């Protein structure tokens, strides 16, 4: 049994590592080298693609746009979702259940179904080709899943803590940021990582709302390396590696918070 497990884990590791190695090696190759020997080593360790991607394209601007959109989308989503989650858990009876169900209904609607009415709404508000419009759309789209995750954890907080705080004269807002938020930090951290990866890698909504180069994000900018008849794979893979690096580093440093958030509340007592 142990040998079978070792073989399966090895195969899974190879499935993950080999494509990553191909991407990394391709960033040091020329286009002719890619088509002649995609699995081979580069003829020389050249950083020409890394220099070209920043000199030929305004990648620093695209990178900054992605940082702004991701930061404000995640921060505001967590703020509103935690407030709503706390309010729902503090409601007694069927009212809280109905409100929670209405919010989570948003998880059942595929993003593609909302594309036309969502674009019409954003266009009528004059928020196309703006980072603000993209941030507001991201908040609205990911709010249901954030509420679902955080509410599930806040429901596990003992009600006796809130009762004791009420007796001591604490207001609802004070109980929110003094009790609910500190105890829910593992769940909030896991949700933050999940939302951060989702917004950073999002292509659908920037492709739908952004046409001006000044407001393009990294995933949308990477499409410029793919032409109708030819694709510059070395530059494309270089851009993919640069765009993926922040999320990989963030997960490596924050994985313990992600795992703690996933397992938090699963064991009582």
Automatic annotation (TrEMBL):
UniProt entry keywords in alphabetical sequence: Cell membrane, Membrane, Transmembrane, Transmembrane helix, Transport
Name of the molecule in the record: Carbohydrate ABC transporter permease
Subcellular localization: Cell membrane
Residues passing through the membrane, by range: 7-28, 62-85, 92-111, 131-154, 175-200, 233-254
Database matches in Gene3D superfamilies: MetI-like (1.10.3720.10)
Membrane topology: Multi-pass membrane protein
InterPro entries in UniProt: MetI-like, MetI-like_sf
Statement: the UniProt record of this protein carries the keyword Transmembrane: yes
Any Pfam family matching the protein: BPD_transp_1
Entry's family note: Belongs to the binding-protein-dependent transport system permease family.
């Amino acid at each position: 049994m142990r040998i079978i497990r070792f073989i399966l884990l090895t195969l899974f590791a190879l499935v993950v590592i080999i494509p990553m190695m191909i991407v990394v090696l391709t960033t040091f190759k020329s286009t002719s080298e890619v088509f002649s020997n995609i699995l081979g080593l580069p003829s020389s360790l050249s950083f020409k693609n890394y220099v070209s991607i920043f000199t030929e394209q305004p990648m620093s601007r695209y990178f900054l746009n992605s940082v702004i959109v991701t930061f404000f989308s995640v921060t505001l989503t967590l703020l509103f979702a935690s407030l709503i989650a706390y309010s729902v858990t503090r409601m007694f009876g069927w009212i809280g259940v109905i409100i929670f169900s209405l919010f989570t209904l948003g998880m059942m609607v595929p993003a593609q179904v909302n594309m036309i009415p969502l674009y019409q709404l954003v266009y009528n508000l004059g928020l196309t080709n703006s980072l603000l419009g993209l941030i507001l759309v991201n908040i609205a789209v990911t709010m249901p899943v954030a509420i679902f995750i955080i509410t599930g954890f806040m429901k596990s907080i003992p009600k006796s803590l809130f009762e004791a705080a009420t007796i001591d004269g604490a207001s609802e807002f004070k109980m929110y940021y003094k009790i609910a938020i500190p105890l829910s930090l593992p769940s909030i951290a896991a949700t933050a990582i999940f939302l951060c990866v989702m917004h950073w890698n999002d292509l659908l909504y920037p492709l739908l709302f952004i046409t001006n180069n000044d407001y393009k994000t990294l995933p949308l900018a990477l499409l410029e390396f793919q032409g109708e008849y030819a694709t510059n794979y070395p530059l494309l893979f270089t851009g993919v590696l640069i765009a993926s690096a922040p999320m990989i580093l963030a997960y490596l440093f924050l994985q313990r918070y992600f795992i703690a958030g996933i397992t938090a509340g699963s064991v009582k007592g």
